[in-house]
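Re: [ENG-882] Designed sequences occasionally contain unexpected residues at chain ends

Forwarding the minimal case from QA. Structure tokens:
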């Protein structure tokens, strides 16, 4: 591994080193691939749930299937789907606080095995236990899947040098969206087979349990315990991490929760998460109510997620580049930049939500384009409020993101229940769906007005009270720095002598 250690002066006046290395593939990148596959499997499992539950209640549409129609009305479907979201929201904070004390490989394996086992047993649970037993199973799956992101972050911090974390973390997180995009249309196609909704559960269980087997056999929690990694790569990772360790800072929970700027971000996050959950678990029901097949509804439900992902990939780096170079100062105060980006995305979403129900009577390419365009604007909005955490604090940005995610997930868990209460037994009544879309638009307006009025990009005082400006510092003394530089020079001389 070609590594060059350079003397560096950090802003907090601590001497340290930074490393320059040629990007070479190693065992650590294979570990990232397995983390990507695990995230993909969990994303696919989440999204296929809505199609499977809808198929359980709508199986009478498929005349070629031998499966029994369980006649679950909309309220039962809403309760089952909400159970997963409630479990997910309730476990996020404990997972963030306590999972660092447990072996990461064990946690990931447990998440995969529990979700795979419950999914494999779900057809039997549906037949023998009814919707109450299914709700309990979904609740348990939600609790375990809340552990996915904290475990991935812990593994990234142990396996990857700082220079590689951003890109690999982005890819691993994007695998969840990719799993959603692929699983929705595939589940719709499977639902029209003779095995119907049972095959959806069995196929997801097979994929998840296969992933668990690969994870248990071929991965490790740390480079030191991996049997296949070479000594050179292990030493490179060790030296990189020794120069970049995270400070154990006391988290000012009370100050964060008393900050109105945090609640402004949480309100925008809540609106976005409510929209995300509605499109994920309720959009297929809305499309089926327009006499579309489950197969076609699954495909059309996936397209908005494709649009949102593409828009976010294009706009996020562009907006960060503009924000970083400071050219926006010539147009307006930079502290309003996030609000303008967020406002542009939310305005388009509100217009789209109010327009969509009126396109139903003649649902065609225009309706589908409006559907995709509305949700795609969420990618622009993510580039606004989701980056505001980093502006407010340089030490606790991840803590703010977790807290706002908990608030937004708790509110979003009510979406299936409230939708079911409004639609009730008449899913084909367009007027009831119009009420839902209007409520979504109104809620979106209120939350984003709160964000626009109360949010800002100023660094908070409770963040300045930390002893160091940044949440990371080097762990090397000047003597150790000199030894590293001297050792590096000697190694280079030996390589030159050998080549001669």
């Amino acid at each position: 591994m070609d590594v060059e250690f350079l003397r560096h002066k950090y802003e907090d006046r601590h001497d340290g080193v930074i490393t320059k290395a040629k990007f070479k593939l190693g065992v650590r990148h294979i570990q990232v691939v397995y983390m990507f596959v695990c995230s993909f499997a969990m994303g696919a499992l989440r999204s296929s749930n809505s199609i499977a539950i809808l198929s359980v209640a709508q199986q009478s549409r498929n005349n070629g299937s031998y499966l029994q129609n369980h006649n679950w009305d909309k309220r039962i479907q809403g309760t089952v789907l909400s159970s997963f979201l409630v479990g997910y929201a309730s476990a996020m904070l404990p997972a963030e606080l306590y999972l660092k004390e447990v072996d990461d490989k064990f946690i990931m394996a447990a998440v995969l095995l529990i979700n795979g086992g419950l999914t494999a047993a779900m057809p039997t649970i549906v037949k023998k236990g009814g919707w109450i037993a299914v709700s309990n199973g979904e609740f348990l799956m939600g609790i375990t899947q809340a552990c996915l992101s904290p475990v991935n972050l812990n593994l990234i911090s142990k396996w990857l040098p700082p220079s590689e974390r951003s890109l690999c973390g982005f890819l691993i997180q994007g695998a969840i969206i990719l799993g959603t995009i692929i699983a929705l249309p595939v589940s719709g196609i499977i639902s029209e087979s003779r095995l119907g909704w049972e095959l959806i559960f069995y196929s997801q269980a097979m994929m998840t349990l296969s992933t668990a087997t690969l994870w248990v056999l071929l991965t490790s929690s740390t480079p030191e315990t991996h049997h296949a990694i070479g000594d050179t790569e292990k030493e490179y990772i060790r030296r990189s991490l020794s120069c970049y360790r995270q400070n154990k800072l006391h988290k000012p929970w009370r100050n964060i929760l008393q900050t109105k700027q945090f609640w402004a971000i949480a309100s925008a996050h809540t609106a976005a998460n409510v929209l995300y959950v509605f499109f994920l678990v309720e959009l297929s029901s809305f499309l089926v109510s327009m006499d579309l097949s489950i197969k076609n509804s699954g495909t059309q439900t996936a397209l908005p997620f494709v649009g949102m992902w593409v828009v976010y990939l294009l706009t996020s780096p562009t907006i960060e580049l503009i924000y970083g170079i400071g050219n926006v100062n010539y147009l307006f105060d930079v502290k309003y930049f996030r609000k303008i980006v967020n406002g542009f995305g939310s305005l388009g979403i509100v217009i789209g939500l109010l327009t969509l129900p009126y396109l139903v009577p003649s649902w065609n390419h225009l309706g589908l384009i409006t559907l995709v365009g509305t949700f795609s604007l969420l990618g622009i909005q993510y580039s606004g409020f989701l980056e505001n955490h980093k502006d407010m604090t340089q030490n606790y940005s991840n803590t703010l993101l977790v807290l706002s995610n908990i608030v937004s997930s708790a509110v979003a868990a009510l979406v299936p229940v409230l939708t079911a209460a409004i639609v009730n037994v008449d899913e084909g009544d367009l007027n009831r769906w119009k009420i839902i879309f209007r409520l979504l638009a109104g809620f979106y307006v209120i939350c984003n007005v709160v964000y626009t009025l109360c949010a800002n990009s100023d660094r908070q005082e409770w963040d300045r009270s930390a002893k160091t400006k940044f949440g990371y510092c080097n762990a090397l003394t000047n003597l150790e720095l000199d030894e590293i530089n001297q050792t590096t020079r000697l190694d280079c001389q030996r390589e030159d002598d050998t080549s001669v």
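QA comment: On inspection the terminal residues look reasonable. The first strand starts at residue 3 and ends at 9. Proposing we downgrade this to a documentation issue.
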